Amino acid sequence: MGPFLHPSLCADGGANRLYEYFGTEAERGKYIPKFITGDLDSLRDSVKSYYAERGSIVIPQYCQYSSDFMKAIKVVVLSGSDPGREALKGEIEEVKGLNGLVQKYVVGSSHAGETLTLHVAGGIGGRFDQTIQSINQMYALSDEYPWMHLVFFTSSDVIFMARKGITHVTYSDRTVFNTKDKVPKCGLLPFGKKTLISSKGLLYDVDKWPSEIGGNVSSSNGVCGIDGFIVETTENIVVNVEVSREFLH
């Protein structure tokens, strides 16, 4: 599973993909998610039964005003507190139950713990509208839960947010991203507000460079820093770095 480590949660049909990822029962049985949630319109009955029999807690949520991804995020948020964890073990109303639990146990409370980095397999790629929605939710979550840091993994990219201010991206060697290219491709993508970007350690470094959708966008850039690079921005932006398949294993 590479950077995904142990899967804590699957959003609806993501459980099908997790099940299909493994070629042997021995391997599949090592990676049982703690939770499966969503409207479950994509989850196959056989997969649902397989994981439920092995301890996964299946939480149906049929509200159509929230994506399955955001329902999964609510489970993650609730898992961050003792009352929330206990609530997830009990019976949950199947339309807006997670919303109610978040309102009860999370909204208005302070988060005193460390930053939570959440690795997301999927969510980017496939239908374009769903990809844009995932990017939109990345922006929304950065405001709602500033202590949560999302990192999306696809078959070709690792995608994350460089928040307003200075972001240090460190690694042992550039080849951790891509073994094919000496300079892995990357982009600095201003999906939100117009911003000024400065960088160090990229192929095309910029200094207080104005960037916005409909204007300047740094795409097809490259990662050159020996063990890291720095991005400074006046507004949140999305960063993607091209990866090779070896990165995902």
Characterization of this structure:
By secondary structure, the protein is of the alpha+beta class. It has two domains: 108 residues, Rossmann fold; 89 residues, Sandwich (Jelly Rolls), CATH 2.60.120.320. Helix content is 27%, strand content 27%. It contains seven helices and 13 strands. The strands form three sheets. The protein has a six-stranded mixed sheet with strand order 4-5-6-13-8-11, with helices on one face. Strands 7-12-9-10 form a four-stranded antiparallel sheet, with no helix packed on it. The protein has a three-stranded parallel sheet with strand order 1-2-3, with helices on both faces. Helix 4 packs parallel to helix 6. The longest helix is centred in the middle third of the chain and has 17 residues. It starts with 8 loop residues before the first strand and ends in a 7-residue tail after the last strand. 31% of the residues are buried.
Helical fraction: 25-40%
* CATH topology label of the largest domain: Rossmann fold
Strand order of the largest sheet: 4-5-6-13-8-11
Supply the number of structural domains.
2
* Category from helices, strands and their pairing: alpha+beta
End-to-end span in angstroms? Answer: 6 Å
Order of helices and strands: EHHEHEHHHEHEEEEEEEEE
Rough outline = globular
What assembly state would you assign to the polypeptide chains in this entry?
single chain
Overall CATH class of the largest domain: Alpha Beta
Largest sheet: 6 strands, mixed
- What percent strand? 25-35%
**Which spans have pLDDT < 50 for at least 5 consecutive residues?**
1-5
Q: How does CATH name the architecture of the largest domain?
A: 3-Layer(aba) Sandwich
Average pLDDT score: 90
Write the CATH homologous superfamily of the largest domain: Thiamin pyrophosphokinase, catalytic domain
